[in-house]
Structure prediction request, 219 residues.
Amino acid sequence: MIVRRTIDKDELKELPKTVFPGRIYVIQSEAETERAVAYLQSRPVIGIDSETRPSFTKGQSHKVALLQISSEECCFLFRLNMTGLTQPLVDLLENPAVIKVGLSLKDDFMMLHKRAPFTQQSCIELQDYVRQFGIQDKSLQKIYAILFKEKISKSQRLSNWEADVLSDGQKQYAATDAWACLNIYNLLQELKQTGDWEVSPLTATVSPTEEVIGNKISD
Prediction:
């Protein structure tokens, strides 16, 4: 597989959209949270992301409203604006046996820490991780496009994540983001194990000695 360093916006626009193919569960009670976390605690790796209601007024801000956590098969949307960050979720975030993969995790955890104190364990920041494979882009949309030749829709990003009922579009958007993080990590782990990848050559303006081709990661 040839891993490209970057992708431009025009090319990104032409790609087909990707959608989360699994089942989506909206979690808005403590009992539902306990059942969902019990399942997630059994997974070796999960994808995570969060959403906060946008503020269009200067000086106004909101607490994180949604924490989405995905396995390969299903994604749970925890409505923190209804339940808060409960102890089962704290236990999951602190569990060193479960790897949490996300993008801009520092921002996500900063917001989550405003809801409850915890010390996150076993986290993979994709912006850092993909650099080992020569990928220079830092947005989830572009990283996903480089690796899967599909684009993630961002049309719901500024919607109201504290709405009484999340729309189908919101649920699909939220689930896709968390699942995409996991999907990226799983593919890169596969490439790392097989060594069957190369970084695309640099432009002609760069000397051949500076090119990184066939770069493989040691364990």
The chain is about 35% helix and 15% strand.
